[in-house]
Design brief:
Elements lengths: L10 E2 L6 H11 L9 H9 L3 E2 L16 E7 L4 H12 L6 E8 L3 H12 L3 H4 L2 E6 L5 H10 L4 E4 L5 E2 L3 H12 L3 E5 L2 E9 L3 E6 L13 H4 L10 E4 L1 H4 L13 H13 L1 E7 L1 E6 L5 H4 L2 H16 L9 H44 L2
Parallel strand pairs: 3-4, 3-6, 4-5, 8-12, 9-13
Antiparallel strand pairs: 1-2, 6-11, 7-13, 8-11, 9-10
Length: 367
């Protein structure tokens, strides 16, 4: 298991002549959301004055050019068929401005070697963009936190080893990054159901059980996402600054829903930009060793309660227009409550009449 080395951090003062300062300032002023700047942009402007360097003694030419996107791919090395397709989709991207971090979680030496052979089979032009890191211990969030620490991109995206990306996946994230102004970039999620199957030669594969579909909203709605996650991880990209500058981390105590937890945190601070494009296919297993079946219903319920409890324990930043929506929701709840009370009152009326008649009959019988 590789160790994540601590950087020797120095500080430098950024001036208006610094190209990175100028580009960040231009991005902040180009926010399309009615000129409003996200909280992350404001924080980054304050931090720009004392931005940590990558280490002492390195010149600009010595530092490797950072890609736009860091792709974090978790795998346990057991889905050779789907991970091959996932890597093939990355190799065919119209924009190659990305790196791939294969986060091999609790894999055996043989499985690790198979992963290395698989990535090498794509040729040097693509395999040079892929780095494999064996990671031992921890739950589903451990590889993601390690990946964040190792990533070099401006944005990070999660691509599980059983999902498929279309050829413009990276290009779309990159194209909308200037509009997002440091916020989340979200594409329209799509899904397809599959189930485990044995392919010729005894290879573990899958069978498709449904057509592709888009069951989730085309646009991100924070209030709706407070009820449940409606954006699978392969359909959004997160600004890495949210982790490095704002200290957000994936909760390693959560057995599931760790992506929903982080999505909500960053969405409230940085906002979300919708692309309106379908760029990836999330595979929904009908059965097998996916998280849906590996973890019990009680684990899913408890994880959901944990995420909601964390949100409920702190003030929330809501997007513009939320007050009117909340007023409408409260008013609707009040109308439902009044309607229920009227219905219950009508249902109980015959009982009250029957009791009055009974009392009168009994009083007459005693006379």
């Amino acid at each position: 298991m590789p160790t994540v080395t601590m950087r020797i951090i120095g500080f430098r003062t950024m001036t208006d002549a610094d190209p990175s300062h100028e580009s960040r300032r231009l991005d902040a002023s180009a926010n399309p959301r009615d000129g409003r700047r996200t909280a992350a942009v404001i924080v980054n402007e304050l931090l720009d004055g004392y931005r940590p360097t990558q280490g002492h003694g390195l010149t600009q030419s010595d530092r490797p050019v950072a890609p736009f996107l860091s792709v974090l791919m978790r795998t346990q090395g057991k889905r050779s068929a789907t991970i091959q397709e996932a890597l093939l989709g990355l190799a065919a991207q119209s924009s190659q401005n990305f790196e791939v971090l294969v986060l091999a979680h609790n894999v055996s030496p043989d499985e690790l070697e198979n992963l290395r052979q698989l990535t090498d089979s794509f040729g040097a032009s693509f395999s040079g963009q892929v780095r494999i890191y064996p990671i031992d211990g921890g739950g589903r969030s451990r590889p993601l936190n390690m990946g964040i620490d190792l990533a070099r991109g401006q944005y990070v995206a999660i691509l599980d080893d059983d999902d498929i990306v279309f050829g413009h996946w990276v290009e779309t994230f990159e194209r909308f990054s200037s509009l997002a102004s440091g916020g989340i970039i979200r594409c329209i999620p799509s899904e397809q159901s599959i189930k485990p199957a044995t392919w010729p030669g005894g290879r573990a594969g899958y069978t498709i059980t449904s057509r592709p579909r888009c069951p989730w909203p085309k646009q991100f709605d924070l209030l709706d996402h407070l009820l449940e996650n409606r954006t699978p991880p392969c359909s959004f990209a997160l600004p890495r600054d949210a982790f490095t500058d704002l200290g957000i981390r994936f909760d390693e105590s959560l057995p599931v829903l760790e992506d929903w937890d982080v999505l909500l945190q960053i969405a409230m601070l940085n906002g979300v930009t919708d692309t309106g494009e379908v760029t990836a296919l999330w595979r929904k297993w009908d059965r097998g060793d996916s998280s849906t079946f590996v973890h019990s219903h009680s684990e899913w319920r408890q994880a959901r309660r944990t995420v909601i409890s964390k949100l409920n324990s702190r003030p929330l930043l809501l997007p513009a227009g939320s007050v009117i929506r909340l007023q409408g929701l409260v008013a609707s709840a009040d109308r439902v409550r009044m309607t229920k009370n009227r219905i219950l009152g009508r249902l109980s009326a015959p009982g009250r009449i029957a009791r009055r008649v009974r009392r009168r009959l009994l009083s007459r019988m005693t006379l």
